[in-house]
Design brief:
Belongs to the glycosyl hydrolase 18 family. By secondary structure, the chain is of the alpha/beta class. The protein has 14 helices and 15 strands. The protein has a single domain, classed as TIM Barrel, CATH 3.20.20. The longest helix has 13 residues. The radius of gyration is 21 Å and the shape is globular.
Length: 448
Amino acid sequence: MLGPERRPFAPTHHPGSSPTRRTRRQASPPSRRRGILAFLGALCTAVLATTLLSATASAGPREAAAPAAASKASTQAAGSQTAAGKTVGYFTNWGVYQRNYHVKNIETSGSADKLTHINYAFGNVQGGKCTVGDSYADYEKAYTADQSVDGKADTWDQPLRGNFNQLLKLKKKHPDLKILWSFGGWTWSGGFGQAAQNPAAFAESCYNLVNDPRWEGLFDGIDIDWEYPNACGLTCDTSGPDAFADLTKALRGKFGDQLVTAAISADASAGGKLEATDYKTAAQYVDWYLPMTYDYFGAWDAKGPTAPHSPLTSYEGIPKDGFNTEATVAKLKEMGVPGSKLLYGLGFYGRGWTGVTQSEPGGTATGPAPGKYEQGIEDYKDLKTRCPVTGKVGGTAYAHCGNQWWSYDTPETIAAKGDWAAQQGLGGTFFWELSGDTENGELIKAIK
């Protein structure tokens, strides 16, 4: 899925925007900090003792670590996993830099107790293969004792460090927690077109990468965040309406009983992105979909009209039909996707404009409101006091403070969305992303 910030380190989801809405976002991969580590030694026995499953991410294509999964027929449909009751949170590898958000924060905030799954964002897609996004953050960065999940510092000679080692420690504390490596995102989706030309080779590379023996037991599957199949995101894809289903079929055949999931568009407008590919056929190969039911509206439309970025329902004056969660879920169901394979999406952040005089939605603006990391976007943990809620519309909240107008979800609106999702028979929820919540996990604790 995407990261909220339009920065090189933050690939981003967006349900319905045209390429011109993301001109600030860079298409080139982020610069990588390299550490000096020896990967030719034996795996660290102490780390491997914490692992239970073999399904993980890696720095490049490797030999398959789990031949049993590889032997599954390519036509096998997902059936051993269900989506019921899932709470999936995204953890971004670039969050360890400016945001100073680390795996330990998942534990200390209480979020780990609520999560069923973590999607680790992002791996890249290059040359038709799955590749690492940031080796330094992923498995090279050294952690001190006070930064570490278990209070033990990394040593200079241990074979695995970084987020991967910390996530293994988190899994030791929470044995039922599953972790998937998510590939693509807004910035790195351009590589899927080439991957779709040889789905079997792509699936092989991803399987070997996710199951690299250096971090055996960390990952329980793969998440694909292709923005967007046979449609336009940062770049335009012309792989055809069958490419996405062919790719997920190949992934299922290779990953077998491991998890295969996909973040998908939420654009339910007539002729929109959900109509550009065959999500019904692909649904049989994934354990669940994560339709990105946020970022429907934002300050890429600099002059407005102001509108909540994550409306649950339509409302009088909404700028575009089909841009709300209810419409997205209804359209996917009409297309033949079971509700049990759909998770509804939440944004742990707000989007806003400046130069706004009207308190209610639909006002004009002069541009994006200032944000800590990027204009037009801010974390919930900052907005709740910076610009407190003044009203609700379409099942979400908005706030008018001074000349700024923001929209974001609160514990109250999240709880109400959970009630709606239960009535719809959905399989659970997911959110972007963990660092936007308060230190005590105020938003995640409101998820039902």
